[in-house]
User: Fold these one by one.
Assistant:
Number 1:
Amino acid sequence: MTLGYAVGTDVGRVRSDNQDAVFADGTLFVVADGMGGHAGGGVASQVAIGTLADEISKGHSLPEAIAAANAAVYERSLEDSLLEGMGTTLTAACGNESGRVGIYNIGDSRAYLYSKGQLYQLTSDHTFVQELVDSGSITKEQAAIHRARHVLTRALGIAELVVPDAFEIQLNGGDILLLCSDGLINELSDEEIGQVLTLGLPLPETVSRLIDLANAHGGNDNISVVLATLDDGHPGTPESLVVTRMAQSSPQVPLRGMNRILQPIPTSMVERSSWKRALARFGIFVAVIGVFGAAVVLAVSLYVNHSYYVGLAGARVAIYQGRVGGILWFQPHVVRVTSLRTDRLSPAVRSQLVSGVDEGSVAQALRFVANATKQIELSRSATLAGVIVSVVV
Ligand code: MG
């Protein structure tokens, strides 16, 4: 019985060729990310995976197969000057239905374990910036944007010997083992990868979703993903988050044998990430509404400040700034009280002023009052003249 799996590799949106290579057959799972120029990278990853699968099929162990793959890539690079210096990352896992999985890693492709809603990074990158992180010189966040983040400290096929990191995990029912090239992790955070796995989609859809998402975020590199899982309902063995760093494959290198307890990427971070995005969206919405609201208030304020009307203020005719009745919270206010008394107004003019007579400026409003006053004076003169004529007659 083999493990269930799905694989996917994509050129991305920037590169012209895919120098990644993937392999999975239910027992062996591999991701390789080639390097070494236009021709070399693709050749290195293909030769490495081809040799690896061939050696495993012949019954060799994974460490033996990796050593053979290293030799094959290295010798090929010596044979062809165009391929000089080529190499590849390699993350390989070998497992069976018991769920026991051995994982070997060289370079900055990664292996993750998704278990019970939490994502664990199993491998550690062999990069210059990872060494800076390990020494405490920079943070993981700074490493993610560091200019030298692509500089590898270990690769397969660049020397006669290669020293992979080795781990062993117990895959339980429902767990997912994820192998990927840096084209995925440079575009998606661990939290975003965890969010996709949390959806519980069929493995092929999960692979597609991850690759699509990485492309949506830029697709600046080739993107490769391999997923492996036990069949649902497999009893497995009691869950353990202890990953064993296995003996190094090279006898020249002293063993750094140790067990390390993996620090999970808590689902709360996944939830917090969603929560943060929702909050950010709400913040943008509020900001847009705020700017729009401020623009409306400013426009109304300008309109009100350039509006005047003539109206009544107690026993006097007055000039107001603003609009009759007010707009929003901008209420009209008296800017000038004239000498014209309201008891001198004709009923018609008085009625006009009760409703307010709009004018464009204080000067125009004063002209209106002056004309009204003049009309009253003329009317009064005419009345007096009529009285005098009547007396004379
Ligand atoms: Mg890459």
Number 2:
Amino acid sequence: MRTTQMITRRGALGLCGGALAATARARSAAADAAATADLAAAARKAGLTFGAAVDLEILKDADFAALIRTQCDLIVPSQSLKMATIEPQFDAFQFEPGDALVEFAHASGKLARGHTIVWNDYAPDWTKSLSNAELAKALDAYIDAVAAHFAGRLQSWDIVNEPFWLGGDRPGSFRPGPWLAAFGEDYIERAFRRVAALDPTTKLVLNEAWTEWNDPIGIAVRRALLALIERLQDKGVKLDAIGLQGHILPHKPWDAEAFGAFLNKIAARGLDIYITELDIDNSGFVGDIAARDREAAQRTFAFLSTALACPAVNTVICWGLADNYSWYNDPWFQKQRRAAREARPLPFDAALQPKPMFEAIARAFADRKL
Ligand code: XIL
């Protein structure tokens, strides 16, 4: 496989250089690991599981599938386990795409993870024509069918995605949508309890965005998320991990100390933390591709090394692995771009070659002190 060969070749060159040059001899073990390891192996050494979001492209693109098999211990479907795919028409369930991806993972000796059972965003159109009472019944039926269908097959499930919404002047309040309308805040507890009853082995995850922003929105979402965790735990709801998406937006303020303190508060509640959707939208960076890739790597390293200082972080997942399959390069996303440039948000480029971001992730893993 071309990437493995390439990484191995680079690793060999790195070791050869180390034997010849004093500066290279002084390289840290971390740098050696970064130069030679695949991310899954580097993650394991750091007490982490590394994975990536993929979807049906994995079944069509053999080179990409090979890259995923080499680099990841876990995959998560980015689209095929969402309600829009599973129940596109009311009461007509479609499990085939999700099943195919879970089977790909297991046949490759990888873990599969679920994303996401309940999300107030991207609800299928049929939700618009139902009354709140009908929506409540529909959600219960959906949760039960999906949890039972995948029971025992998923390492973890994002039970609720993005409970909070940063909209308007009410940062930190609940994200509006059909499920909030039907149940109020209780939809969250309800979903966790129903899945726990049907699938006792999967890890139950509450997944949220924006918490790495050190602006009024990010600060409010952090505060709201911690309060929600406390309410759920006080009610005895089984909650195993908090997923923090980590879609890094470089123009947002970042404060390592504040983010680290937030992670420690989650950890103090006995929860694991997953970084669930790591990528960086660097389309707004100035400079040539090499400069942009270097800057993306630096930002990724700053974020990850802060996250990995918290021992509760045990999983890191990129939202995609190679730029050509990033959601930032989806046609619908192009319309809302802040810049005309192609986004280069992931550790591998469109030719499946590692970028500086690959080295940054490997270095953050290798540097982790357990
Ligand atoms: C994205 C998918 O990657 C896209 O293909 C789709 O069109 C929209 O959703 N946060 C989430 C993910 O929790 O579900 C989103 O995935 C990306 C942002």
Number 3:
Amino acid sequence: MSLVNYRKRRRFQVTPEPRGRRPRPRRSSLRYVIQKHRATALHYDFRLEWKGVMLSWAVPKGPSLDPSVKRMAMPTEDHPIEYNTFEGVIPEGEYGGGTVMVWDRGTWTPETEDVDDGLKKGELKFRLDGEKLHGSWVLVRTRRPGEKRPAWLLIKHRDEAASRRDIADEEPRSVVSRRLLVEIARDEGGNMEKAADGDPPALLRRMLESPELVMPASRRRKKSVWHSDREPTRAKKPAPIRARKKAPREARGA
Ligand code: MN
């Protein structure tokens, strides 16, 4: 559990993502967050708080409520807990460049007795109490022959929260700002076309017909959304140096 890999991959003078403080385990309930991330490809970053960091897996198709569906989950580097509120745009060309949405959040409870042992052995059972996801789940490691990195599978257990409905498609908005990816990109100076590619096409088509469905572009709506205090990072070429001549007054007013 360390943020060394997290920090190695990022340039904090360029990306608005948080650097993260020293990992500090807490006693109270454990948090989880799922961030929908339109980077090189769309995926859902599934993060569980453990020992002061967020253990992380990238789930390309997102979670499924259907217990017969196994969703691939590739382990990624531990993230700082401050990352949980990050919603915004990572500059293109940087690690993970693209639009990030807080898709779900809540608390999790281990159902595996010894979490460290479960992680080592490759099977972690837990409950989620979130805004979108609930009930019992399992993350299980699989090692397919010939594959370098072991993949994990995220699977819903059979319980009252199991369902056939497609939650990724039916609930595509941010739990903190109600925005779609395209609206986050619009508000934070990202690539709207690329971001929209991660939103449900049918909903985008309805929005074109009924513009009142579009979230108004208001800046800095929620304090819970983590923002950089820097200016947007695009178009930051230094101003060309030339001798400044004062324009004649009448020319300026025109
Ligand atoms: Mn990601």
